[in-house]
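With this grant's support, the team has encoded backbone shapes as discrete tokens. A representative record is reproduced below.
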Amino acid sequence: MKVEFAPLNIPLARRLQTVAVLQWVLYFVLLGQMSIAITVMLIIHNYWFLYIPYLTWLYFDWHTPEQGGRRSSWIKNWTLWKHFKDYFPIHLIKTQDLDPSHNYIFGFHPHGILAVGAFGNFSTNYSDFKELFPGFTSYLHVLPLWFWCPVFREYMMSIGLVSVSKKSVSYVVSKEGGGNISVIVLGGAKESLDAHPGKSTLFIRQRKGFVKIALTYGASLVPVFSFGENELFKQVDNPEGSWIRTVQDKLQKIMGFALPLFHARGVFQYNFGLMPYRKAIHTVVGRPIPVRQILHPTEEQIEELHQTYMEELTKLFEEHKGKYGIPEHETLVLK
């Protein structure tokens, strides 16, 4: 295979975009593990004056990721995130106004490999979120295990990420006065194993916890579909029933997160690497589904609202797929 190298005369803006995305990929792939390793080394070598104060702080601060986090406007405004957004580029599209006196749960689909559209649109200050949804604050929920990593967890919270636990989502949508949006990548780790270019497979039929929370607190549900999310990486073929998929499923159940075998392009060549392809992402926010508060919803009420949500999600996909390069015959697969 002939290697296709990046040309030398690439504009500075594009190089800055590549650097921004590279640090983000490394941030997810390496920094969490490195922070744990560094903490262990400090303990082994008995640098108590470093780890004792921090572990004490960690003990008292442990539940902050479930209580709205601790965001930093300075970090969320880093120019780095503008370059990150422009690399693909990432777009946010609104289909209907929302009432800032209410709280909402955005169901984000699909997960893709790294949920790039969710991060770019709802975690940094360089998307069009503030202009499209004035008066709202978004909280992007991620796996709780990310907040088990010392020091790294502080960086996670500084850019607006919070835990996806029931307690965390409930905290956001129960806040008085409205104007709060919980953004949940509903397919989660399991769905990432189906993130293949040209496919639109969602793991949603068994995901009903968000519906129960919406009913309990009267938070409106909003389906969100991010067109282009599955085009950013290629994944080793892993159909259900294959030995690769069997191993991945078992590891996902044990560890709580999936290990998709993905690749895309490199930094200085375009044939192979962990850098995502430069593919446009269009994240479309659908129509809100009004939810009447029911403190103790029944299974029937949860099932009914869940069915309505899946119908609205399918409508959103069908209404907009033609605008963003999805063939007319392509349909959503809901698993």
Q: What stands out?
A: The mean pLDDT is 91. DSSP finds twelve helices and eleven strands in the chain. The CA atoms of residues 29 and 124 lie 19 Å apart. The first strand starts at residue 90 and ends at 94.
